[in-house]
Write a structure and sequence with these properties.
single chain; mainly alpha; 5 helices
C-alpha cells in the first residue's frame, strides 16, 4: 500500500507539472490575444476620434461659412438702408409721419442714424432709446396743462 501511495503522489506531482506547463503556454497565448484586442480597440478609438475631429471640423467650417453669409447679408442690408435713407423720398415719408420722425425712427420703425446724437455707437443707441419707449409731446399736448392752469 505504501508503494501504491508513493506512486499516486508521484502521478499527482507529474500531473500538476504537466498541467502547469500546458496552462502556462495557454496563459501566454491568452495574454497575447488580450494585448492584440486592446491594440485593436485603441486603434478603433483612435479612428473614431479622428472621424469625430473631421466631423467637428466640417461643422465648424459650415458654421463659419454661415456666419460669413450672415455678416455679408447684414452688411448688404445696412448698405441698402443707408442708400435708402439718403434718398429724398424716404425723408418725405418720415416727415409725413410726425410721431415716428419725432421719436427718431425711420419708416421701418428702426432708429435713424441722423437723429441720434452719438451716431451708431453705444451712446447713440442709448440716446435713441427714449424715442423707442416714449414719445415727445406734441405742441397741442404742451399747451393743455397751461390752459388748465389758467382755468383754475
Amino acid at each position: 500500500m505504501f508503494r501504491a501511495r508513493i506512486g499516486a503522489q508521484a502521478f499527482t506531482v507529474v500531473a500538476m507539472v504537466a498541467g502547469g506547463a500546458y496552462y502556462g503556454a495557454d496563459r501566454e497565448k491568452r495574454k497575447e490575444l488580450i494585448k492584440l484586442e486592446a491594440q485593436q480597440r485603441a486603434e478603433e478609438r483612435n479612428q473614431k476620434w479622428l472621424h469625430e475631429l473631421e466631423v467637428r471640423d466640417e461643422e465648424d467650417k459650415r458654421l463659419q461659412a454661415a456666419m460669413k453669409r450672415k455678416r455679408e447679408r447684414l452688411e448688404q442690408r445696412r448698405a441698402e438702408e443707408q442708400d435708402s435713407s439718403h434718398e429724398p423720398k424716404m425723408a418725405a415719408v418720415s416727415a409725413s409721419t410726425p410721431t415716428t420722425a419725432a421719436a427718431g425712427a425711420n419708416a421701418e420703425g428702426k432708429p435713424s442714424q441722423e437723429g441720434t446724437a452719438g451716431g451708431s455707437g453705444v451712446l447713440g443707441a442709448l440716446s435713441s432709446a427714449g424715442g423707442w419707449f416714449g414719445r415727445k409731446k406734441a405742441p397741442s399736448e404742451e399747451t393743455k396743462p397751461d390752459t388748465e392752469a389758467e382755468k383754475k
